[in-house]
Amino acid sequence: MILQIAIGLATLAFGAWGAAALWFQSPYSGRARAALPAAWLALAAAALAGLAFGHALLAWLFGAALLALLAWWRLGVRPSNARQWMPEVARQTQGSVEGDLVTLRNVRDFDWRSPTDYDERWETRRYDLSRLVSVDLALSYWGRPAVAHAMVSFGFDDGQYVVFSVEIRRKLHDVFSEIGGFFRQYELAVLASTEEDSLRVRTNVRGEEGYLYRVHMPEGAARKLFLSYVRTATRLVDKPRFYNTLTANCTTLVYRLADQIVPGLPMDYRLLLSGYLPEYLYRLGALEGAGSPEAYRQAGDYTQRARATLDAAQFSRNIRRGVPGVPQAAAPGQEATAAPGAGARSSAT
């Protein structure tokens, strides 16, 4: 009896999983798309009925079909870089390193006027890691406080910033589905871009809310983190992989990269609920300059500053006004100061 119950529960679980897998990987569209998932659910229902009435043959038949489905899932559903992509993820960032100099190809610098109206620019840019002076975490929210898109911006003493973002590589006409992210519907990309592109489009064009946090790291860690992003982005060009809503997304990959720098970082539910990452970083002592995560969040909200900035050349400076831990630009004749309450320790170089 216990064995029958266990087999029945497994049949229910694999019936639901298989139907979802066939739905999201179906080669058909419209009404025909439901044909394979419906047939799979019918087979699972027949297997359950067979278990209930003592006809084990139907359960064995479902088991054989499940093995075939798993083999197809393992061998037949493979990631690829050769698809028709949305323009904003049509290219992949890749880099080369020579000493302190890093050359990044396909740095995105789109000029966005609306979600569908923009000028496409993909550039090759060079960065001198000896001039790397800051690491900022940017979080963008679109409705739910527990969920945000996480991006990491690296700043250089010549005024350059480059943002690394873990992106879903959506195909043309794809509609995003969080459930689809569990079923290999999208490939993964690590994309480098300018702040005037990736941060501005979210606040000024998509209507999202943006927050900036200056992250303080041990000496040398910022450089290693930068190079980790470069290696990961370049590796994905040669070896594509799927995005996964739970195990391979913007926040979990930030953790995996950071863990290479500071081994043994504690696991935490806030790594899955990305909107609460500031509380996690505050607990680690990586945020300085404010008395609480709430105070840091309030000062780091750059949404209105971004929307009020019409000159793209002033964007990076304006969104950092008042952010704790960020040295503030001084008026002529005065020395620069840190944001109110900012700690004395500077960001890693």
Short descriptors:
disordered C terminus; 349 residues; membrane; transmembrane helix; alpha+beta; three-stranded antiparallel β-sheet; 11 helices; Lnb N-terminal periplasmic domain-containing protein; five-stranded antiparallel β-sheet; transmembrane
Description of the molecule:
By secondary structure, this protein is of the alpha+beta class. The protein folds into two domains: 1-76, no CATH class; 87-320, no CATH class. The protein has helices at residues 2-24, 35-53, 56-75, 195-198, 200-205, 221-238, 250-261, 277-284, 293-300, 303-308, 315-319, and strands at residues 94-98, 101-108, 111-114, 117-119, 122-128, 132-141, 149-156, 161-169, 187-193, 209-214, 327-328, 337-338. The strands form four sheets. A five-stranded antiparallel sheet has the order 9-8-7-6-10. A hairpin with a 2-residue loop joins strand 3 and strand 4. Helix 1 packs antiparallel against helix 2 (35-53) and helix 1 crosses helix 3 (56-75). The longest helix has 23 residues, at 2-24. It is elongated and about 80 Å long. The termini are far apart. The relative contact order is 0.11.
Number of discrete domains? 2
Question: Averaged pLDDT, please?
Answer: 89
Radius of gyration: 24 Å
Structural class: alpha+beta
Read across the widest sheet, the strand sequence of neighbours is 9-8-7-6-10
The ordered H/E elements are: HHHEEEEEEEEEHHEHHHHHHEE
Low-confidence stretches: 331-336, 340-349
Strand fraction band? 15-25%
**Quantity of strands, as a count:** 12
